[in-house]
Amino acid sequence: MLSKQAQSLLVNALQQAKLKTSATIHVHFCHRTKKAPVVAATQFFKHIKLDKSKNKNTVLIYILEQNRQFVIMGDIAADALLPKDFWTQCQVLLAGYFKKDQHSEGLEAVIKKISDALAPYFPAG
Question: Which of 115, 119, 125 is closest to 90 using CA atoms?
Fold first, then answer.
């Protein structure tokens, strides 16, 4: 899905996020699953123990490459502190980029949106 250049942009976006917030943003690409996207993302979130973070501020961007679907979800503290429709806003933003085949740009934009939103609550540091 992502070229080497696009992967570099993604890594850079994640590094920039770390400079703003102590919240952790994970991006995972799944090639295929028979499960519903939300079920697969939730299981992955728990499988790699993202739900065990000390501050409960981890975010997962879970991308199903086969059908170009995705799920964006946050742990308990991130959910509680951000506006109720924040994850929906992020999904709409990313979907707009994906429709134009601008995957890396979309991921970069949504990572920035998430890190900017979490920085006041969980500053880098």
Answer: 115
62 assigned to some structural domain: yes
Alpha carbon separation from 105 to 6, 19, 33, 88 (Å, rounded): 8, 19, 25, 18
- Rounded to whole angstroms, how far apart are CA atoms 118 and 105? 20
- The domain spanning residue 102 has which CATH number? 3.10.310.50
Rounded to an integer, what distance in angstroms lies between the CA atom of residue 49 and that of residue 97? 29
Establish if 123 belongs to a structural domain: no
| Structural domain total, the chain | 1
Q: What is the pLDDT of residue 111?
A: 98
**Has residue 14 been placed in a domain?**
yes
Residue 67 — very low, low, confident or very high, per pLDDT cuts 50/70/90?
confident
Identify whether 124 is part of a domain: no
